[in-house]
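User: Hey, quick favor. My workstation is busy. Could you predict this chain's structure for me?
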Amino acid sequence: MFSGAMVALITPFDNGQVDFNTLDELVEFQLKSGTNGIVPCGTTGESPTLSHIEHKQVIERVVKVVNGKVPVIAGTGSNSTAEAIELTAFARKVGADASLQVTPYYNKPTQEGFFQHFAAIAEEVDLPMVLYNIPGRCGAGMTAATIARLAQIENIVAVKEATGQLDVSSDIANSCDITILSGDDSLTLPICSVGGKGVISVVANIVPADVKAMMDLILEGDLVSARKWHNKLFRLSRTMLGMATNPIPVKAAIALLGMASEEMRLPMTPLTAGQKEELKKLLADYGLKV
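Assistant: No problem, here it is.
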């Protein structure tokens, strides 16, 4: 159902408030660049520091601007099952095409807890669901066996795989036929080589056409040509995202490119002056005008 180059969209701020006009511009930029799907209110969208009202407003605004041109996969996950159900029901009501459901953070559920959490959301809200497996940020992650169990539920259709371990993608691919999406830009080509069908990309915020070009070649089966794009994108994504916790570097990059403010909400803090200079050179070396 979902494949290709999708963007984990940032949430722009201006003087402490969501900048909806810039949000519209960022969505239009993605659409013009051929992005296959837009994912608002994920980790990159700073969902943990959005109020519930803002969270819903961002989802609704993105759905409205996209206007059915590509799928909108709304980040509606939470470490509270009831809260995730509420946000997912809202996303369905305003016309989102699917939800992105992060593994519950801080709670550190058992594998049975993960299963019951996602099964409850799927039972309550009839909307396609993309699981988001990212133990590095959540404190715990799902095993391939748990994902295979969840894949038996009709509206659980994909998993965003962000463990950073290629073996996990292989295990999932060998356990069930759920769609696997890369959650790490530097691993998109490797994950797709073992069965992945797309990426929910951070770096696509600034170079969506390049991520799209790579994914198109991958889906055509031309991994040799795709590797050229992988090598070009690899240094950008690894260096940029290695500077600080996402979305700090990508917001700095967006600001340097004049696309939006780098403003974030605490506890996220900006890059240092030295890091910004390094990032500026990285972007220029890539071929971007800063």
